[in-house]
């Protein structure tokens, strides 16, 4: 990463929307078990392993370089003062040194902003836990990573055997910066490439790469932005047929009475979860069986995501009922959807989302899951035309926008508007696929990896789940001023899972008849 790489508009938005009350980093709480005969220093072994593999993920050594006066998006540049000891820390866990204590500490640490003067990630190692366990809390700014890229980083950090694999050291020198005459020559070559392929506009638009200076002075920024605007205009022109088709599909669905009913179901009722959050967080994690959840989804004729939504629905419904605040109308969930193509491991964000009603107005668990399956199918159909539009609109760039967006985000945060505005969704629910085989780090077996995601104003509760081996690890994160002890809600999930399984179990008479 010798040359600066400017952030996309989507990546940069996570920087602009960040406030002291609303950090925009994501992370995980991993639990390891050391071998019984382990004699080393896990913290030092883990740190040495990460140092030896930093070149696999250049984003880990990249810091932000702001544009003058914030007139354009910042760039990732290599940190020439990178120090691993400012990113991996040996942390202390007070008695009784169990997972519940670790979860409370993680909630507290997740509320702290990352230092933008350094690469935007930190690891904390908690040794001395019960049963020879070690905790690892990691966090990385969402501007640098999404769930798909996080899975790619997992492959960098972990091994598939207790003996760490040997990683080849980096090769090759630093790519020299371009001189003005080289930039001008490349610019002419790019225009020649564009006009030599007039009959295939979409392919020419896709391949067009105008030169950049990669520098941070204001003249270079203006030049690079002009090159970007030309590229964007050409790519947009090449994709006009796709854009028009997507717009036509959206208009067609809006005009359809059935689709309007689906849109009405996506309107979110206000709840106690949809308020302004403080700068404190409460975190808890819980695990259930992946194979049993998949079997339940198959019985219901749905997907694993539907079961995850049903479990989240049951937990939130039960919690709100305890406080007598469950709305008559169904709550909704914001569900991120990855746009990342298979094999794409770039450290950036390639995601959009859909809103889905989660049937909290239905008491019966089986009927609730069936309603969620129907609603999620409708939501996917409604959002499908937008998938083609997202690459066109997710990287819109306008000079001066960064400072404007940051001012608006701070104003929204300080004005408590989320207390009076209708919520876009009531909760966020995300499902990140993970590896099925056992993983190791520096010789320690990975037992669990609980996601730790983002709480926002108006959507205080985020439930993210990651699959690993034959388990689903759920991470609940919430603004602590809304739910001081989210462990209470987390403990309800296994009970909701048992209720769902019981709802789909064959009647006892059928079981007895089959036995005879």
From TrEMBL:
<comment type="pathway">
    <text>Glycerolipid metabolism; triacylglycerol biosynthesis.</text>
</comment>
<dbReference type="GO" id="GO:0071731">
    <property type="term" value="P:response to nitric oxide"/>
</dbReference>
<comment type="similarity">
    <text>Belongs to the long-chain O-acyltransferase family.</text>
</comment>
<keyword id="KW-0443">Lipid metabolism</keyword>
<keyword id="KW-0319">Glycerol metabolism</keyword>
<dbReference type="InterPro" id="IPR004255">
    <property type="entry name" value="O-acyltransferase_WSD1_N"/>
</dbReference>
<feature type="domain" description="O-acyltransferase WSD1 C-terminal">
    <location>
        <begin position="349"/>
        <end position="500"/>
    </location>
</feature>
<dbReference type="InterPro" id="IPR045034">
    <property type="entry name" value="O-acyltransferase_WSD1-like"/>
</dbReference>
<dbReference type="GO" id="GO:0006071">
    <property type="term" value="P:glycerol metabolic process"/>
</dbReference>
<protein>
    <recommendedName>
        <fullName>diacylglycerol O-acyltransferase</fullName>
        <ecNumber>2.3.1.20</ecNumber>
    </recommendedName>
</protein>
<keyword id="KW-0444">Lipid biosynthesis</keyword>
<dbReference type="InterPro" id="IPR014292">
    <property type="entry name" value="Acyl_transf_WS/DGAT"/>
</dbReference>
<comment type="pathway">
    <text>Lipid metabolism.</text>
</comment>
<keyword id="KW-0808">Transferase</keyword>
<dbReference type="GO" id="GO:0005886">
    <property type="term" value="C:plasma membrane"/>
</dbReference>
<dbReference type="InterPro" id="IPR009721">
    <property type="entry name" value="O-acyltransferase_WSD1_C"/>
</dbReference>
<dbReference type="GO" id="GO:0051701">
    <property type="term" value="P:biological process involved in interaction with host"/>
</dbReference>
<dbReference type="Pfam" id="PF06974">
    <property type="entry name" value="WS_DGAT_C"/>
</dbReference>
<dbReference type="GO" id="GO:0001666">
    <property type="term" value="P:response to hypoxia"/>
</dbReference>
<dbReference type="GO" id="GO:0019432">
    <property type="term" value="P:triglyceride biosynthetic process"/>
</dbReference>
<keyword id="KW-0012">Acyltransferase</keyword>
<dbReference type="GO" id="GO:0004144">
    <property type="term" value="F:diacylglycerol O-acyltransferase activity"/>
</dbReference>
<dbReference type="Pfam" id="PF03007">
    <property type="entry name" value="WS_DGAT_cat"/>
</dbReference>
<feature type="domain" description="O-acyltransferase WSD1-like N-terminal">
    <location>
        <begin position="7"/>
        <end position="308"/>
    </location>
</feature>
